[in-house]
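Annotators were shown the component list below and the corresponding predicted structure, then asked to write short factual statements about the assembly.
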Amino acid sequence: GENVEQHPSTLSVQEGDSAVIKCTYSDSASNYFPWYKQELGKGPQLIIDIRSNVGEKKDQRIAVTLNKTAKHFSLHITETQPEDSAVYFCAAKTNFGNEKLTFGTGTRLTIIP
Amino acid sequence: DSGVTQTPKHLITATGQRVTLRCSPRSGDLSVYWYQQSLDQGLQFLIHYYNGEERAKGNILERFSAQQFPDLHSELNLSSLELGDSALYFCASSVGQVKETQYFGPGTRLLVL
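Structure shown to annotators:
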C-alpha cells in the first residue's frame, strides 16, 4: 500500500520568512495530493491540492510543487504570519480501488513573531 | 466551516462500553470517510461509504462498525472499548468516489477511562 513520509516534524520560522514542508510517497499510481492545515481542537482543513498532471499550483501565499519522477511533493508558504502556526499534513491518493487518503505524520509549524 | 457536522464533540466513557459517533456530510456529498487520529498513529483511514454502500476498509478493528443511512448521514459504532481507543475520530465527505476532495468535520474526541 501507499506510504507517505513527511519532513520535518517540527519547523519554526520567523514571521515574514518562508516555510517549506516536504513529502515523499511510495505508490507511483498515486495521482492526487492534498495538503491540510489542522489548528488545535479542529478538524483538518484543506488548504491546497494538486493532481499528477500538474507540476505546480499556487494560491496566494501558498504553493505546492510535485515531482512525479522522484515521487515527492512540497508545500511552500511565503511571507508567513502568526496565523499560519498549525500542524500541516500532506496526503496521497490513487483513483484505483481504495479511495482512502494516506497521510503523512504531520509538521508542527510555529511562526515566531 | 467545512459543512460536515459531527456529534458529539466530546465523549467520555468506560472500558467495555459501546458508543456511537454520528456524521452528517456536506449537502450533495455521497461519500463519507472515517478516520482515527491518535498521538502515536497520526490520521488513519478506517472506512469509506458511498451512497449507502461500503466501498473500502482500512485499519478498522472488528469491534468497530459503521453504516451510511439513506439520508447519507453515517454512524461509527465502537464497542468493547479499550483504553487505546481514546482518540479523535474524524468524518470527511466528498462529492463522489473519484472526485477526490475530502472535507473534514470538527471531530469527536473520545476518552476511554
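Statements collected:
1. Chain A touches chain B at residues 32, 34, 36, 42-46, 49, 51, 89, 91, 93, 95, 97-106 (CB under 8 Å).
2. The CA atoms of residues 9 and 79 of chain A lie 21 Å apart.
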